Amino acid sequence: MVRPELEELFTERLRLRRYSQSDVEKVYRLISDPHVMRFFPPIADRRERAQKMIDYNLQSYETFGYSVLAVERRSDGVYLGQIGLLHWDDVDGREDVEVAYILAAEAWGNGYATEAARACRDWAFERLSVDRVVSFIALANEPSIRVAERNGMKRIKRLDVNRFEIPIYVYAIERGEWESARGTQLL
């Protein structure tokens, strides 16, 4: 069986594409905004962390065929942040594919996160043999919780001890729920 490769996705307003080494500065600017990163553990060296994020994504593309993607507005090519799929095998005691998202503050409130998250969720169910898709969200991150809910996900548990160093909620949508909702065009 051929492994699916997530090269890029297009939505009505967005292009999601694989990161390259030339994107380190964009990621650095994104994760240097304290307002954007307020729900994430502190980062000591943001430039080093930006490089590690790019390296991780490039390795994940090779290993799994997918990872987080750079999000650009189609109308003008402006970088808005990152949304995509992450492979986990150590967060909820099972292997999972997570829809993960971080957008620049100036992109908030336009529905971009929901639009891109839905495209990633759909790609995961259409191309991967997964029984559910999840999002891991800091307890106080209400905007991300709303995105997960608009993505058809429900809160299934709280994890206080995990690799993220902060308590998180696990949100999930099961394949059957996704298939049912797709048939009625609710998602």
Structural description of this entry:
This protein has 187 residues and is α+β, with helices and mostly antiparallel strands. It has a single domain, classed as 3-Layer(aba) Sandwich (Aminopeptidase). Helix content is 33%, strand content 28%. The chain is built from five helices and eight strands; from the N terminus they run ββααβββαβαββα. The chain has an eight-stranded mixed beta sheet, with helices on both faces. A hairpin with an 8-residue loop joins strand 7 and strand 8. The longest helix is centred in the first third of the chain and has 19 residues, at 46-64. The radius of gyration is 16 Å and the shape is globular. The model has no long low-confidence stretch (mean pLDDT 93).
User: Between the first and last Cα atoms, what is the distance in angstroms?
Assistant: 29 Å
Please name the CATH architecture: 3-Layer(aba) Sandwich
Anisotropy-based shape: globular
**Overall average pLDDT:** 93
The helix tally amounts to 5
Point out poorly predicted stretches: none
Strand order of the largest sheet: 1-2-3-4-5-6-8-7
Using the coordinates above, name the CATH class. Alpha Beta
Instruction: Kindly give the count of domains.
Output: 1
Query: How many runs of DSSP E, i.e. beta strands?
Result: 8
What portion of residues belong to β-strands?
Answer: 25-35%
Structural class: alpha+beta
- Fill in the CATH topology: Aminopeptidase
Order of helices and strands: EEHHEEEHEHEEH
Rg (CA only): 16 Å
Fourth-level CATH superfamily: Gcn5-related N-acetyltransferase (GNAT)
- Helix fraction? 25-40%
Largest sheet: 8 strands, mixed
